[in-house]
Every structure is written in structure tokens, then in C-alpha cells.
Amino acid sequence: MAAKGLKVIFIIINILLLMFGATLIGLGAWVIVDQDGLVQLAKVGHEGTYENFSKPGILDVMSGIAVVEGSLTVLLTILGFCGLGKKSKCYLALYSGILIALILLQIALIALAGVLKDRVNQNLRKALKEVIKTEYEGFVESESKFSRSLDIAQVMFECCGLDSYLEFNSTAMKWTDRTSNQIPKTCCKLDKDAYLEEEQYIFVNRNCARLPTPDISNIGKACYNDIETWIINRIVVTLALTVAFTTFQILGTIFAFCLLHAFRKKSLV
What is the mean pLDDT of residues 35-58? Predict the structure, then answer.
């Protein structure tokens, strides 16, 4: 009875590991693929700057690790089920060894998530302000990934500027409309779905960018808090999943060793 109980618990843990592995693959792949979305605003490098958008930021590195670990975990659960089905001590020993290695990788991912969270808290506002000066262009066809991402954030969160709508005219040197408009077009009240899905401007009032007022624009709300919250939330979700994942990996290792011990005693039916 005890041996059968071990089997059942081992199967449940492996199913949960399979689900967590698939979730990690999905989350990591989404960040890697979504390079034109808000992910660009989280490209804080090892020094807390946006010096090179062609290089991966810490969030990109975390996502790559998550995809690799999720994929290995999916393969590992298959190995675990094979070991259980064949009652193979070799398979279960290999399963346990790889799982221990993955636990160490998970600990590294948790530490990396903590580093990124601290870096966002300490450096994000300053880094964003600096990169607006050199990267923000303010039109939907811009080749700057950062510029497109900031526009998406302004539409999504219905806000304007990091701390004030006035900062565009005073700091955004590459903003193409800075001589004719007071605010970027994405600071205007517009059809969010049309912009986010089809990159079309459908304004409440077409004079908004030139003569903005609170009724037809989002000049009354700054963007920084929403951007920071969006980034932090994704880090926290990754961190929580990783901690839960590591817990089940540890349980999987323990029960794999228990099964190995049971096999050696030839107590399984």
C-alpha cells in the first residue's frame, strides 16, 4: 500500500511539473517573441541603462532560462514516467540527478528575478528619461523599438509622458512633431483597439496633439507608475511561478529517491 501511494504521489508531482514546465515555456516564449511591445521598456541592462536595444536585457535572459528549463522539465517528466513504468532504477537515478541540476538553475533564476526587481526600482525612471532624449520619435512607423513601445504604453495606460506631458518638447530631441505639436499623438484620447491592433489613429478630436486639453487628451496622467507596475508584476509572477516550481521539483526529487529505495527492496508490485 505504501509503495502504491508513492507511485500515485510521484505521478501527481510529475503532472504538476509538466504543467509548470509548459507554463514557463509559454511565458518565456511570449517575452522573446513580443519584442515590439512593452517588453522593450524593461530592457534594463546590467548597469541599469538602455545603452543597446539589440542586446538582451535581464528580462530577456530570464525568459530564455525559463524556456530552456521548461523544455527540460517537460522531457524530464517523460523520463520520470518511463522510469516508473519500467521500474528502472537507472531512469529514476538519472531523473533525480537532472532534477537537482534544474533546482540549482531555478535558484539562479530566482536570484536573477530579485536583481531585476531591485534594478527596476532603483534605475528605471532615470534610464527611461535618458533614452527618451535619444530614441523617442513619436510615430507609428518608427524604427526605434523603444519609441514604439512608449507609444503603446501611452495608449494602453491612457497617459502622457513619464512624469509630465511637458517633457517631450523639452527633452525628446528626435520627436518628429516637436515643432508643431505640444504632445505626441498617442497622448490623445483615441480608439485603443484601432491603434494597438491596427496601428491606426482614430482621435476623439483631431486637434488634440496641437491644442491638448484634459477632455480630449491624457495630459492629466503620467505614465511612469503604470509602466513600473507592469514590469514589476511580470517579474513577481515569474518569481512566484519559479518558487512554486522549485518546491515541486524538490518534492519530485524526494519521491524519486523514495521510489529508488523501494525498487532496491523490491517492494513494488
Answer: 62
